[in-house]
Amino acid sequence: MTIQRMDNVAIVVDDLDAAVAFFIELGMELEGKAQIEGLYADRTVGLDGVRSEIAMMRTPDGHSKLELTKYLTPAVSDAEPRNPPPNTLGLHRVMFAVDDIDDTIARLRAHGAELLGEVAQYENAFRLCNLRGPAGIIVALAEQIG
């Protein structure tokens, strides 16, 4: 038995509307929003009294999704440090292919994104960068140039 596909990556955020706006600015589409609660939610995530709001975002090609989750109860557990460096164990980053990296950075900065270093060129193939996005997650951008 093999997997069928990767369905989505979930990211816990503290401001769902701001995170949705950030990923819409990046070019993702809001597929839908829902409130999640009940025994199935408690059992699935292993917490009691789960009540959360989610927004499902999808890439324009329809192949990739992000589930943005805001926990209403139980209270969010804050990771230490708040904005871990890129070499921290666990989820490293989410990368997106973009048409124009400079334009994308400018648009995302208006939503609070911070560049973690600079835009670098890999051989004659890509321009790459990492940004700190909503809830401290690292969003990488890649513009193919060759």
Describe what you observe in this structure:
- The protein is α+β, with helices and mostly antiparallel strands and 146 residues long.
- The protein is globular and about 50 Å long.
- 17% of the residues are buried.
- Helices cover 18% and strands 36% of the residues.
- Strand 8 and strand 9 form a beta hairpin.
- It has 3 helices and 9 strands.
- The strands form 2 sheets. Strands 5, 6, 7, 8 and 9 form a 5-stranded mixed sheet that branches. Strands 1-4-3-2 form a 4-stranded mixed sheet, with helices on both faces.
List key phrases describing it.
146 residues, alpha+beta, 5-stranded mixed sheet, 4-stranded mixed sheet, 3 helices, 9 strands, globular
